[in-house]
User: Fold this.
Amino acid sequence: GAVVSQHPSRVICKSGTSVKIECRSLDFQATTMFWYRQFPKQSLMLMATSNEGSKATYEQGVEKDKFLINHASLTLSTLTVTSAHPEDSSFYICSARAGAGEKLFFGSGTQLSVL
Amino acid sequence: EDQVTQSPEALRLQEGESSSLNCSYTVSGLRGLFWYRQDPGKGPEFLFTLYSAGEEKEKERLKATLTKKESFLHITAPKPEDSATYLCAVQAGGNEKLTFGTGTRLTIIP
Assistant:
């Protein structure tokens, strides 16, 4: 099946720093990528949807200036958590698909811990 | 608002003991219902997509079924390696996003 690579798998940072997470589709061109956040024992919550070459669409309650999403190419999307705080500590997961109606494939996730 | 409720929250089975996981949903115009498997610290792994009531799909020891209100994931003669959290998600018509349930944490005891 299709492979979505997410990096890093784990990051620990100090409060106030920014963290960038990369999501790559390795064997297909991803027209749409999605970013989710998951707290322990909770459901995946969609943060934003990004289409290549256009601005991301953020879900209600997600601060677009805090969670910067860039989908500059058909194989790469990045999520930057700016000025991270302990409450931003969570498991962040990206997903990608080749086109509308196509299967959604998930990355392996990034565990962010903000001290 | 689309809603997905999964039950039970956690399930412990002996190896070989068959059972079913439930996913109840309310959505305006179902476009697809998805089942994923998630191992600890990993992203979800796709299992099945169901599109219409009455549809069934099978893969190894798993079978997914769909009605107008709920979906079941049946697991037959499970093995310890089937231990994981199973997530259900729905996609509404005209909408790209998936709405996930909180999952069922399945543990198979050898």
